[in-house]
Automatic annotation (TrEMBL), chain A:
Gene: WDR24
Per-repeat ranges for WD: 116-158, 203-245
Keywords: Autophagy, Lysosome, Membrane, Metal-binding, Repeat, Transferase, Ubl conjugation pathway, WD repeat, Zinc, Zinc-finger
InterPro entries, A to Z: WD40/YVTN_repeat-like_dom_sf, WD40_repeat_CS, WD40_repeat_dom_sf, WD40_rpt, WDR24
Protein name per its UniProtKB record: GATOR2 complex protein WDR24
UniProt source species: Odobenus rosmarus divergens
Region (Disordered): 580-603
Subcellular location: Lysosome membrane
Record's keyword annotation contains Cytoplasm: no
EC assignment: 2.3.2.27
Classification via PROSITE patterns: WD_REPEATS_1 (PS00678), WD_REPEATS_2 (PS50082), WD_REPEATS_REGION (PS50294)
Quaternary structure annotation from Swiss-Prot or TrEMBL: Component of the GATOR2 subcomplex, composed of MIOS, SEC13, SEH1L, WDR24 and WDR59. The GATOR2 complex interacts with CASTOR1 and CASTOR2; the interaction is negatively regulated by arginine. The GATOR2 complex interacts with SESN1, SESN2 and SESN3; the interaction is negatively regulated by amino acids. SESN1, SESN2 and SESN3 convey leucine availability via direct interaction with SEH1L and WDR24.
Functional summary from the UniProt entry: Catalytic component of the GATOR2 complex, a multiprotein complex that acts as an activator of the amino acid-sensing branch of the mTORC1 signaling pathway. The GATOR2 complex indirectly activates mTORC1 through the inhibition of the GATOR1 subcomplex. GATOR2 probably acts as an E3 ubiquitin-protein ligase toward GATOR1. In the presence of abundant amino acids, the GATOR2 complex mediates ubiquitination of the NPRL2 core component of the GATOR1 complex, leading to GATOR1 inactivation. In the absence of amino acids, GATOR2 is inhibited, activating the GATOR1 complex.
GO molecular function, a single term: zinc ion binding
From TrEMBL, chain B:
Protein name, per record: Sestrin-1 isoform X2
Organism (species): Odobenus rosmarus divergens (Pacific walrus)
Family the entry assigns: Belongs to the sestrin family.
GO cellular component terms listed in the entry, alphabetical order: cytoplasm; nucleus
Entry's transmembrane regions: none
GO biological process assignments: cellular response to L-leucine; cellular response to leucine starvation; negative regulation of TORC1 signaling; positive regulation of macroautophagy; regulation of response to reactive oxygen species
Amino acid sequence: MEKMSRVTTALGGSALTGRTMHCHLDAPANAISVCRDAAQVVVAGRSIFKIYAIEDEQFVEKLNLRVGRKPSLNLSCADVVWHQMDENLLATAATNGVVVTWNLGRPSRNKQDQLFTEHKRTVNKVCFHPTEAHVLLSGSQDGFMKCFDLRRKDSVSTFSGQSESVRDVQFSIRDYFTFASTFENGNVQLWDIRRPDRCERMFTAHNGPVFCCDWHPEDRGWLATGGRDKMVKVWDMTTHRAKEVHCVQTIASVARVKWRPECRHHLATCSMMVDHNIYVWDVRRPFVPAAMFEEHRDVTTGIAWRHPHDPSFLLSGSKDSTLCQHLFRDASQPVERANPEGLCYGLFGDLAFAAKESLVATESGRKPYAGDRRHPIFFKRKLDPAEPFVGLASSALSVFEIEPGSGSMSWFVDTAERYALAGRPLAELCDHNAKVARELGRNQVAQTWTMLRIIYCSPGLASATSLNHSVGKGSSCGLPLMNSFNLKDMAPGLGSETRLDRSKGDTRSDTVLLDSSATLITNEDNEETEGSDVPADYLLGDVEGEEDELYLLDPEHAHPEDPEYMLPQEAFPLRHEIVDTPPGPDHLQDKADSPHVSGSEADAASLAPVDSSFSLLSVSHALHDTRLPPDFFSALVCDMLRFYAEQGDVQMAVSVLIVLGERVRKDIDEQTQEHWYTSYIDLLQRFCLWNVSNQVVKLSTSRAISCLNQASTTLHVNCSHCKRPMSSRGWVCDRCHRCASMCAVCHHVVKGLFVWCQGCSHGGHLQHIMKWLEGSSHCPAGCGHLCEYS
Amino acid sequence: MRLATTANEAYTASLSVPELLGCKQCGGGRGQDEELGIRIPRPLGHGPSRFIPEKEILQVGGEDAQMHTLFADSFAALGRLDNITLVMVFHPQYLESFLKTQHYLLQMDGPLPLHYRHYIGIMAAARHQCSYLVNLHVNDFLHVGGDPKWLNGLENAPQKLQNLGELNKVLAHRPWLITKEHIEGLLKAEEHSWSLAELVHAVVLLTHYHSLASFTFGCGISPEIHCDGGHTFRPPSVSNYCICDITNGNHSVDEMQVNPAGNVSVSDAFFEVEALMEKMRQLQECRDEEEASQEEMASRFEIEKRESMFVFSSDDEEVTPARDVSRHFEDTSYGYKDFSRHGMHVPTFRVQDYCWEDHGYSLVNRLYPDVGQLIDEKFHIAYNLTYNTMAMHKDVDTSMLRRAIWNYIHCMFGIRYDDYDYGEINQLLDRSFKVYIKTVVCTPEKVTKRMYDSFWRQFKHSEKVHVNLLLIEARMQAELLYALRAITRYMT
């Protein structure tokens, strides 16, 4: 109640004041109704029937109409209504089928006036005529509506809906003789009160029961209906056929609907189950409620606007035994919290993005993309001043076009098709994949594969050890194994790259570090904006691809700045830096050339610093061991996979994951793996690489992924005679009662595998056809086609 | 042709778990023929139902187009034409909806895996010792790849299913005791917890099979030929009946000789119908004149509720379950208990506060899409089904009678309609009918042919099947209402 506020509205002399407040009732409420003076409200339920006065600060109980020692079922109210002309007159609908009228003017304690026991089933709704003092209408579960004249003892006329139970009846506010009724079977009927023999008009409004309806207070032709199908529909009844003019989809079945006074397009709804909130909708904006009241803890059963000309006070009763007054200004407005943005890809890779104008303005100020390859086109929607949401509807649309060719993902397709993921020894797989990558000009990726082979395969392991050894001994020998193939492999890759200024390579690693991280960031930006990650990936892959090597070489150029001995705990920050250090090849090359490096080689020759840098990586034991176990690298490899995945090359991450299998799987949590797999499979499917995607699904070890293959394995076929889908069985058509697929060899129905020739479309049992075509090359059906079975 | 294969397959399946399906009595019979080398099963029964003479039941092949489609659909969906279908086809309109719903529940998209669905079906049917349904679903369960170990008893099933056991028990026998704590217990059981959607699916399956068990016993459905008790290997000359017919709980042997309505003269029975119709007419007329006071109306419900628990057949001897299905439920002693017999006070459930149309439907459809719609249709068809006939009379408005039956069943479960005069029940339903209803709904395993024959003696068998449809749908709705109300309470 912290957001309470006081509101005073002047309404032609009388003023309504109040605040958002609630009061506890003794029992759940089923319905509420307001007196015409807007100062009293009646609450009715199974075991409650009370009148409350609405005061500024609180509700005050004024009168308890449940009198008598023994509670009678006549008092178990399904609905209550207060006459809008006579403030002493009330009517209730009882669950046992009785309609009771109450006269507050009676001097005795018992205000019960008349009792109509004509309905056989529960009465769902009662309604007074808006202008006539004595006319009361009721609608019951038994399918009848009855019109009572309160001056008489029984009903004046009975209307039979000829369909199921009546859920709501409402007199038209404008047309004197008309009323609408809604039914459990989804129908809405319009009646003339003078003609009980048949309804004027009937139409099906909803799928399932129509729980409620409400006539528009001003627009005489409009009727709002709400149903179990979670819809609120607004019908225009002035036309020849009732026309649906608006439709609001809510999240639960609609129990009540009430037009908001003075607001032509607003209506309030509450639901029957699950959802406890009251919503106020603008029917022209059917997706987001204009306002939402969240006070109730159980379903809201009754809503009423406090005054027919005041749009700011809403009263509600609920199953949680509270009566609430809601102030419109206190309502939460989902619109404010929503961030209206839309994003869509075009057919050729163009990207359109629409957002609130204010949002875009600030964004563009913050992000200075001097778009070289970006052509944003700004559209501005012309605003119609008559439109209701001027403030919200102004939005900016930007379209990012893609430069022809830059978005080409052919490398992705090629890679996906040519990679070998299983079925061969690891070393071969790695070599093969490295070769594929190299042929596609993705040297970094190729590098990574080669690296993986070295790490994980025993011959590679040996060479890695020897390399390690050589580094450990000091790089003075100048020809470590790694170095050699780096030079060879990287040369073409480097030639095409435009990243680090070569001259900067000579400077100290600190500056290089800064520069490289700068490139990193720009690359990320590029990638974001262009949707093509080829160049970015190229660069970053390069950075990452050398990571292992870097790590090996790290001691070499780390030691000059470092103190002699490091504490093992500091290993982690340092290792983190490794990722950001400039690409190895640069250094290798530069340092190999530069005299500076050769100068420092003298230092590097001493064993002690090397030892300390190994301890930095908390693997000091490895130094004494001449072989590094592959496990030792797994953390790094995992980091690398994550890095690839983050850069958008999920293909690499998944491929490595599959190829390495058990070796790294345990180090990456299940969810991340699943995420990678799903992204990769999604990508593959977008490129129609069904076979590859299936292979990936099959090779994945994650349960959630491998079950993808198990879903939707049903293939529906159409009948070969009538071309209708055969829904129930695959081999006989419901419609033409013919067996669809006959075997051309044995002339029996094929219920299992059916194989057919694509040339002549004859076919049959797989076995039969195979056998037949062994002996003959003609179609078994005798059509003369030369079929082929491969 | 397919039927034969299915039967054979199922039969081998049943042999592969002999300890489960093995019928000791029949086992002896099998042994005798073993030396012949080939054992040819013979149908044991006398048509799909033990209660209804075979000639009354529609013969396959003699059906009209609509029924034929139904048979074809049923056959395609299940791979068999089971006896339930053959009996229900008395009411094709209902059968269609029934098959559609059952097919959706068991085979279409849903939150539960297929073998879980069949296992839940087995659990539910086993509560009523309905060996017919258990056998059918054991076969289906194995067919969809269920683990045969589970069939050795609930304690061999995953913890998740074991947790459902309690709900199954309460739902089958005392649904009014279901509280939101039951629901909470299932939904918050750490790694064995159910999701809301799964739970709703399970609840729908449980209630479906509880009431289907009622139908099976209520109409005396014969075992299928490929299931135990449905066939014999004895040559026909040895004996017509296998002993397990008796232990099935329906005492068919001694009652086969009793001619339906044989000991009552035709004129007596004729007057019964006349009297019933006269009462209906009177009720229709006097309703407007004499209006019972509110207190009386309230007490009538209480009286009917209280009386309903004393309505039990005199031959209420305890039939001990001889079947191995008893393994599926750990607590045999927990059966149907009446409201206040043991000093329990159960608050009356008011339909006006929580009803299927407004509340139950929305909840089910929200959590298990489309099923709410299917069940809703099924309820509607069952409730509104009428041919306007009563025994030999035509053009009778039977709505009053149908409503009395429906409300009587709900009354037994403590569900009250404010707008119903429970005095009508007493007028329209005589004692033998009440005994039958009560037994079918609450303790279906105790239904005997005598009970079936002794109510409404002049009515047609199709009308008695119609009554059974009302019974099972009303029961299903009652159970669903209690379970769904608990779920709603948990959610709010």
